[in-house]
Design a protein that fits this description.
alpha/beta; Rossmann fold; 5-stranded parallel β-sheet; 8 helices; globular
Length: 247
């Protein structure tokens, strides 16, 4: 979460481990950099859940290598067995939506229970590692209406983690889900990433990239990303199929 709960409170001699969900996108890469800046020993978890934008897995590997994680696990599960989303089924990814359309309702790119599944996997690994800190790059401002990106969701997951784990019920500590970007705009996230040395040219945010990993520039994720770079007044170094104006 934000504020004092994110302050480093571990021994300088023995950095505390943290599990960081890393998709290879702009937000998760910045979150990884935030966790590094706080002095945590980074254990990055990337989940290949059957998403059509599998090129992000290569991006996640690039970012993990660049930011010096202790360990990077890529875990495969198949949410295409359920479908229900443009990212996990043969449903068209919305393109060229207006800002009003992006900000209204829950779009078809919502993957049912995705963050609950991803955080649960991160929690399982954290319990094995003896880690009490999980990081996730959710954002409640410049986002596409996903219900599992809200502060109240993060707080509810923390409460569940305490009740549902051996570590949570028998220990003297509790799990903390850090969402350091949750109240930031995309412009603020990009600025934070720049300050922490993130090379955004390594990242991929697009919901519908081509086989080269080039972003479409028109889906909701691309539009929100490009808006953030434009507001900050710097070009987006990511690869696009057709370079958007100003990049």
């Amino acid at each position: 979460m934000t504020g004092g709960r994110d302050a480093p409170y571990f021994s300088r001699m023995t950095p505390r481990p943290a599990v960081v969900l890393l998709s290879g996108g702009l937000d998760s890469s910045t979150t990884l950099a935030v966790a590094r800046a706080k002095g945590f020993a980074l254990h990055a978890l990337t989940v290949h859940y059957g998403q059509r934008h599998a090129a992000e897995l290569a991006a996640a590997r690039r970012v993990a290598d660049a930011l010096g994680v202790v360990e990077h696990k890529v875990l495969g599960i198949d949410l295409r067995a359920f479908g229900g989303s443009a990212l996990t089924a043969d449903i068209a990814v919305p393109k060229d939506r207006t800002a009003a359309e992006i900000g209204h309702g829950i779009p078809v790119t919502y993957v049912p229970a995705r963050n609950t599944i991803l955080l649960s996997l991160a929690l399982a690994w954290a319990e094995v590692l003896g880690a009490w800190d999980l990081f996730i790059g959710v954002n409640a401002l410049d986002y596409s209406g996903y219900p599992d990106c809200r502060p109240e969701y993060i707080e509810a997951f923390e409460a569940m983690a305490k009740l549902a784990t051996k570590a949570g019920t028998s220990g003297t500590r509790t799990f903390t889900v850090h969402a350091p970007l949750i109240r930031m705009s995309k412009r603020e996230i990009i600025r934070t990433g720049h300050e922490l040395g993130v090379d955004f040219g390594m990242t991929l945010s697009c919901y519908d990239p081509d086989e080269r990993g080039a972003a479409c520039g028109a889906c909701d994720a691309c539009q929100l990303r490009l808006k953030g770079f434009a507001e900050l007044g710097v070009p987006d170094p990511a690869l696009y199929r057709n370079a958007p104006a100003g990049t």
